[in-house]
Design brief:
5-stranded mixed sheet, binds inosine-5'-diphosphate, 16 helices, Nucleotidyltransferase, domain 5, 469 residues, alpha/beta, single chain, 16 strands, 7-stranded mixed sheet, binds calcium ion, globular
């Protein structure tokens, strides 16, 4: 019975084919022609092969779920690019051997205040290499962002806008990457601080946990310094209202299913290189107790020159501390809030989110140069007091002995080693109110699986870029 029905169906199918052979011929001729064109056209056949190769190289996972992001960090002292690749769970996946492509060069965009085109062109080599690391067919889907920080902030609106416009044109002319609206901007300081907080907590896998289990961050750049940490909803409700033109103290963020209230503040002109100028301004053209004994020169910052000369009696830790406190404006009479850091800025109220502090950028670099952390390790556990201890040695040395006493310090930094270390100690203890004995983590990179990723704000920006629809 079954066999009979099958035969019957076979017969009727061939009958049908026979009856409709004219229509079938009409359909099949264009189909064959289209197939021939697709296979023979050079462009089309290349893309078919490339997609196949990509799928194979990814072990069958498919490229569809992978998202790349290219983020430029246009910092005050240099430009850098980071390329990240995320899987569909928003976990980082390796590009080649590392979890990110990271390239950097000096100087930054703000070194060309009067030549926007040259400023933008300084990014060309970074752009070309970053783009080349993104698979061909994913480039038009891959967001590229350029975030400029303190260097362009300090240049003022017109000069910085001209440079950003030249960067937008460079991306349009030279790149196939996707530029969203507002992809090329000066980040405001609170944005920069919150991206840094997201970066570190993402890499530590503390995102999604209660706020008191997250870590706080300090990022000491060349031009500005940021602090960010999560606070309770109740503390957020009591945050002082920002004055007109100021950034608000609290950002609400929704991450991994949890709402966070992030205290964040950025201090323009208090990055390490800018703070040198502030400290030299205090002694206004005369000798300065922070300058290493035996040095007499000028310090250039932001297009201005400052006299940087040691006093005949040499540098002094105590006197340098006084000058640093003066430059920081650690002065309670400025504070109209319950408790301030410095310059009249609210301190955020402290709490569990500030218990563990991850302190990045120049804090790590100077500690490594001064020799009390290992530069080959991604993180180091120290205490603010370690900066004071190193400062007491730097402030009593003679310039001529610098190279033997501190062999890792870059030559240009030697005259300023006492100043830098005193400033860093003063910033942590008198500025941010940390105890000298508190354990803090100096961080250059954060381990993520077998790899380590740069502890810098661009990852936070990349996560936002690939999460938005
Ligand atoms: O990706 C990074 N990884 C580690 N350190 C970084 C990275 N980007 C910047 N830094 C640190 O920041 C310092 C310079 O700050 P930057 O030029 O970004 O100033 P800004 O943040 O005030 O604009 C560098 O010397 C370095 O210590
Ligand atoms: Ca920076």
């Amino acid at each position: 019975m079954t066999a009979k029905r099958a035969i019957g169906r076979h017969e009727s199918l061939s009958d049908k084919i026979h009856r409709h052979r004219g229509v079938l011929l009409l359909i099949s001729i264009p189909a064959v022609l289209i197939t021939l064109v697709v296979v023979l056209m050079p462009g089309a056949s290349t893309s078919v092969v490339e997609e196949y190769a990509l799928r194979n190289s990814e072990g069958g996972g498919g490229s569809d779920s992978r998202k790349y992001a290219v983020i430029f960090d246009a910092g005050s002292s240099g430009s850098r690019v980071h390329v990240y690749c995320f899987d569909r769970n928003l976990d980082l996946v390796p590009l080649e051997n590392e979890l990110e492509l990271f390239l950097q060069l000096k100087p930054g965009l703000s070194a060309y205040p009067n030549d926007p085109r040259q400023s933008a062109n300084s990014l060309v080599s970074l752009l070309d290499k970053a783009e080349a690391s993104v698979p061909h067919e994913l480039r038009p889907k891959t967001p590229v962002r350029v975030g400029a920080t303190a260097g362009l902030r300090a240049l003022g609106h017109e000069a910085s806008e001209n440079i950003l416009q030249a960067v937008r044109e460079l991306l349009k002319d030279r790149s196939r990457l996707k530029t969203e609206a507002n992809a090329v901007t000066v980040l405001d300081g609170t944005q920069e601080g919150s991206y840094q907080w997201v970066t570190i907590n993402y890499l530590l896998k503390t995102l999604g946990k209660p706020y008191s289990e997250t870590v706080g961050v300090v990022d000491l750049g060349g031009g500005s310094v940021q602090m960010a940490y999560a606070i309770s909803e109740e503390d957020a409700a009591t945050a002082p209202k920002p004055l007109q033109g100021e950034d608000s103290y609290v950002r609400e963020m929704y991450l991994k299913g949890r709402k966070y209230f992030l205290y964040v503040h950025s201090y323009l002109h208090y990055g390490l290189l800018a703070a040198r100028a502030e400290i030299l301004k205090v002694s206004e053209g005369s000798n300065n107790p922070c300058i290493v004994t035996g040095y007499d020169g000028t310090y250039k910052y932001g297009g201005k020159a400052f006299k940087a000369a040691a006093s005949p009696s040499g540098a002094s830790l105590d006197e340098c501390r006084r000058v640093a406190l003066n430059a920081l404006k650690v002065n309670d009479s400025l504070c109209t809030h319950m408790k301030c850091t410095f310059g009249g800025v609210w301190n955020g109220g402290g709490g569990g989110g500030q218990k563990n502090m991850f302190v990045a950028s120049f804090f790590f670099d100077r500690a490594a140069e001064a020799g009390f952390v290992d530069p080959t390790q991604p993180v180091a556990t120290v205490h603010p007091a370690d900066f004071e201890k190193a400062a007491s040695q730097a402030c009593t040395m003679k310039l001529g002995d610098g190279k033997t006493k501190f062999p890792l310090v870059e030559e240009d930094n030697l005259p300023y080693l006492c100043l830098d270390l005193v400033y860093q100690y003063t910033l942590l203890v008198d500025g941010f109110g940390l105890k000298p004995s508190q354990t803090i983590t100096l961080v250059k990179k954060v381990k993520y699986g077998e790899h380590a990723v740069e502890a810098a704000w661009p990852l936070g920006s990349a996560i936002e870029a690939v999460s938005s629809p």
